[in-house]
């Protein structure tokens, strides 16, 4: 098993950060000029505390307005940066330091040294998202409105589950993705199901190896169109045969979506997983099939 990442002479250590945020007032995860983003806020805080530039690699580049309770990122940090009185070589102490500096809508919840083979993006086996959707006549409950989307028609959960099941599996989700240069729209959708909570809010659970840009919100919009009776399951299934983004698929609101977890293999399997994932990325880039980007 590999230990924490170090340069020759023990100069750096790889740290994993588990992060949560309310995405309402962010323009997404990725840095953007003149925009407030999660990456920029967290990197700035880490750089200030550690007194060295910090650049994060993330598991899921969430869009504007999308939330996270289970985001994962990593960075390589000089060992000397952790050798301070307040941190004393223990990355876990960064959590308390950052809590004093970060705004209320973002938190680093855990920080720990990891194997040099750990890569927040390429080591990931699957990402898990949750979508909250209210079909109440009045919309979303006000105190939950930042994290719950509204649908203006009554929804049939059984019909939504039937439509969702038709989409599960290894498929080309081009109809649900905004196209980007460089990679494929083929994804392995491993779970897509719906239920109502005690307050009547619909909860969608969505898991896949990776997601294209806007894919989850498009999946929700498509099956909700079946749930409200305007479309049927066959229409939803037929979308898998399309090879371009479909204008027929509504994109659900960002505020209902939350990245709740990322799965990784055991430490001794990380290198093999990275090799598999990187090979896929290289192959699709060379094929120029058009990339939607991982969420």
TrEMBL record:
InterPro entries: PsdUridine_synth_cat_dom_sf, PsdUridine_synth_TruA, PsdUridine_synth_TruA_a/b_dom, PsdUridine_synth_TruA_C, TruA/RsuA/RluB/E/F_N. One of its GO terms (biological process) is tRNA pseudouridine synthesis. The keyword Transmembrane does not apply. The active site is at residue 63. GO terms for molecular function: RNA binding; tRNA pseudouridine(38-40) synthase activity. Residues 163-265 form the Pseudouridine synthase I TruA alpha/beta domain. It holds the Pfam family PseudoU_synth_1. Keywords: Isomerase, tRNA processing. Its EC number is 5.4.99.12. It catalyses: uridine(38/39/40) in tRNA = pseudouridine(38/39/40) in tRNA. Substrate binds at residue 129. Gene3D superfamilies: Pseudouridine synthase I, catalytic domain, C-terminal subdomain, Pseudouridine synthase I, catalytic domain, N-terminal subdomain. It comes from the Bacteria. Homodimer. Formation of pseudouridine at positions 38, 39 and 40 in the anticodon stem and loop of transfer RNAs. HAMAP family: TruA. Belongs to the tRNA pseudouridine synthase TruA family. This is tRNA pseudouridine synthase A.
């Amino acid at each position: 098993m590999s230990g924490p990442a170090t340069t020759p002479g023990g100069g750096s250590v790889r740290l994993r950060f588990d992060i949560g945020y309310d995405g309402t007032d962010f323009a997404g995860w990725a840095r953007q000029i003149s925009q407030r983003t999660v990456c920029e806020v967290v990197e700035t805080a880490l750089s200030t505390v550690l007194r060295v530039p910090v650049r994060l690699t993330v598991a899921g580049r969430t869009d504007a307005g999308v939330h996270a309770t289970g985001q994962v990122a990593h960075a390589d940090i000089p060992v000397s940066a952790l050798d301070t009185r307040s941190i004393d070589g223990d990355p876990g102490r960064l959590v308390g330091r950052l809590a004093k500096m970060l705004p209320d809508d973002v938190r680093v919840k855990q920080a720990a040294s990891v194997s040099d083979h750990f890569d927040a993006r390429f080591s990931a086996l699957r990402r898990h998202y949750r979508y909250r959707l209210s079909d109440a006549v009045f919309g979303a409950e006000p105190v939950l409105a930042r994290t719950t989307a509204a649908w203006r028609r009554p929804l049939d959960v059984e019909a939504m589950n039937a439509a969702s099941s038709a989409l599960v599996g290894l498929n080309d989700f081009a109809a649900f993705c905004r196209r980007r240069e460089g990679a494929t729209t083929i994804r392995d959708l491993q779970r897509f199901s719906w239920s109502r909570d005690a307050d009547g809010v619909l909860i969608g659970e969505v898991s896949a190896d990776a997601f294209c840009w806007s894919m989850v919100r498009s999946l929700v919009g498509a099956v909700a169109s079946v749930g409200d009776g305007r479309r049927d399951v066959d229409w939803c299934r037929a979308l898998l045969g399309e090879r371009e983004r479909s204008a027929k698929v509504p994109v659900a609101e960002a505020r209902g979506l939350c990245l709740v977890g990322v799965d990784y293999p055991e430490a001794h399997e990380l290198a093999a997983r990275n090799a598999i994932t990187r090979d896929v990325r290289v192959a699709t880039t060379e094929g120029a099939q058009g990339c939607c980007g991982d969420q």
